[in-house]
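User: Show me an example of a complex going from sequences to structure tokens.

Assistant: Sure. Here are the input components:
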Amino acid sequence: MKNKKTNIVTTDILIIGAGPAGMVAAMTAMQHNPNKQITVIRSYEKSQVPCGIPYVFGTTLGSVEKNAMACGGNPAADKIEKIIDTVTGVDIEKKMVTALNHSINFDKLIFATGSIPFVHKNFQDTINLDNVFTIRKEYHEVEKLKNYLENRQKIIVIGAGFIGVEMATELISKGKEVILVSGGHVLADSFDEDMALKAEEIVKNLGVKLALGQHANHITHKDEMATGVELCDGTTLDADVIILATGYEPNTRLAAEAGLKLARYKGIWVDEYMRTRNKDIFAVGDCCGRRDFITRDPSKVMLASTSASEARIAGGSLYKLEHLKGFDGTIAIFSTMIGDRVFASAGVTEQRATDENIDYVSGFFESMNRHPGTIPDASKQSVKLIAMRSSGQIIGGQVIGDKEAGEIINILGLAIESKLTVHSLISLQVATQPLLTSAPTTYPIVMAAQAVLANSQR
Amino acid sequence: MKNKKTNIVTTDILIIGAGPAGMVAAMTAMQHNPNKQITVIRSYEKSQVPCGIPYVFGTTLGSVEKNAMACGGNPAADKIEKIIDTVTGVDIEKKMVTALNHSINFDKLIFATGSIPFVHKNFQDTINLDNVFTIRKEYHEVEKLKNYLENRQKIIVIGAGFIGVEMATELISKGKEVILVSGGHVLADSFDEDMALKAEEIVKNLGVKLALGQHANHITHKDEMATGVELCDGTTLDADVIILATGYEPNTRLAAEAGLKLARYKGIWVDEYMRTRNKDIFAVGDCCGRRDFITRDPSKVMLASTSASEARIAGGSLYKLEHLKGFDGTIAIFSTMIGDRVFASAGVTEQRATDENIDYVSGFFESMNRHPGTIPDASKQSVKLIAMRSSGQIIGGQVIGDKEAGEIINILGLAIESKLTVHSLISLQVATQPLLTSAPTTYPIVMAAQAVLANSQR
């Protein structure tokens, strides 16, 4: 690092990281504090839309460029100072952040350092092999993996969460041979077996080979090249490339070195207003410690939308608190598309409810997403609701349907977050329209709520 | 009426009418009272999906048959006794309903007699002309209008509410020449001018001629055939057929004759549990008197989904009340598709809020419905929110977008019904996914809520 020149900067609000959480925190902070100087520091100029990454590898986007994150769009964003540099240390007492070429004094600091791939101990000794990859989120890393896959045919994806399933089906769309390996069902954290089996059916029909129900024991290799995966029953699978889609962990080395308290799973400990124990230091997004809205357990759920929600609360709470409801835990609200079907989930599954000793009742209803069912693009739509038996409060929902299912889950999310009961949902007033929704008489959320009531009277 | 034979029937629960309200009331009553005999009486064997009627006249469904209402689907429906007959009188004291060929004793009675076209006084003397039609909901009446239109080319649709606009655009799809006449903007009860203008643009581009801003003074005619319409400025428009899409009114002649109290606009007066003043007599759907959830005014809103909601409350409240929240007024939640764009609305418009002396603030946000915007089927999505200035409670929302906007409006509906505030919406946790929704950083409901907050600080 020759000729190093340190630029000394002073700002009111400093945000480390410019992913969705960092940018939303910056924008919200500006809205609430128009006269404060806001600065964002990030390592690289270009970045990727995190949830869009799987689509770079298939035919949907097909290019890294098309998945570039637009920082602009909002003219207000121009007023935010941006520094491209890598932070090396945070001095909380001196209120100063040190980067390779900068030294930045702040009044309020927000950590938005995101997450990095989690590597299970089974793979830690093989993770550096030339043809073993995690799915990293940096622009150049996505580019590197895409280039590497260009001429490779046989790919094993380990991990059947949302990213694993999306990667597998996108790679299939490019004519690759893909094996998806997981210890359980696909999307097992978000869907009960009855719904997951439907997802597996589609994944299989798309051409992905499923190796489910068995953990990957280790990656086999010859010199610096992985040759495949050995499952726990001893079976071996061959591959040209191995991709680990085994989750992420909070990127909190900086925060820990700065002396901030970490929560379980390594996230930065924050209160409901996203404040660390130091009232001038906040953390938002994947780098912060999360709890589950329903079970109150520490949570590993990482979602850009949750991050954005946290960032809005932090951005609006830097100098004064304005609203009693802070961030009260993640409702774990997900959606994805598998083939031409949407799978969406919020709250707890039945399995999770059982594990947590929740006395629950579930209800299921399937109808058509148009009415009458003769409308040309009509298809099936199903909703499963999970509610506390006695109070009737909605604690979980799963939806399968066409694209609008991606918004139906947000109705359920709002019901969960608002602690509504099945009684409220039964008399829910909804807009129904032949070309757009199920019939008013069979709107699936209402019917599933009714099924919950019927089942709880049994 | 020779050889008339009166069948004497005794039932526990009798429902007059088998539209969406009647059938949902019957099904819900059965779920809550599995041991009671439930009977539905209706005039005709076959019926139409009410909201699907406009699509019979264009290319979307293109046939009356395809819009037949499926009464089955639910095996439980088979346990409901069905009588095809026309009710002629209701004796509340004797708890007896008289029909042409039946005499039915009941314990509980539910009126679900629906609505009939409203005919403005300007047209009352011309409504019986051979080529002047209202849009009736009976199967054979829809068939009759469809047959009549087969060989007619020039059509005037009077009234630019949802049915008028849907009729006009469907008729255009069949190559007809259509003029849409209205005293104001299209969909003026549900959208403010800024949104309505966008709808008009599309309607025009589809080929419908718009004659807006002027009431139709009267229908011109020669002998028994209408020749056109004279507008209030004296302009005359020629037509082969004139269709009145000028709303509906409660069908309550029977109820009035039975001595039940009617509310303003002729609906049967009911309380929040859909009970008339007689605790054994209920009314649901378009035949009952409605209030507006927000303004508390009597409301003319008629929606099958609202009817279904009322019917579920009535069906569950016949013998005992189970949940404090009854039907607390219509939130006027609508959606439709114009061309390839969805227009959806819930609650009050800005105009209505002004008329009602509501101190409101609105917020608007437009983004893309996919992220990144390079996803192949991405299109614009915009949300307008209207909230009480001081409390921040959401009282209205308008959405324009692709098909999923039909469910986004239901998120807003739930927010309105639950009396949520913009503060809750700002930290709303939503599922966002590249192929299905806008970006987590720009989810339009959240951004519109933020705009409301920003605008209220001005």
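The lines above are the inputs; the final block is the predicted structure for all two components together. DSSP finds eleven helices and 26 strands in chain A.
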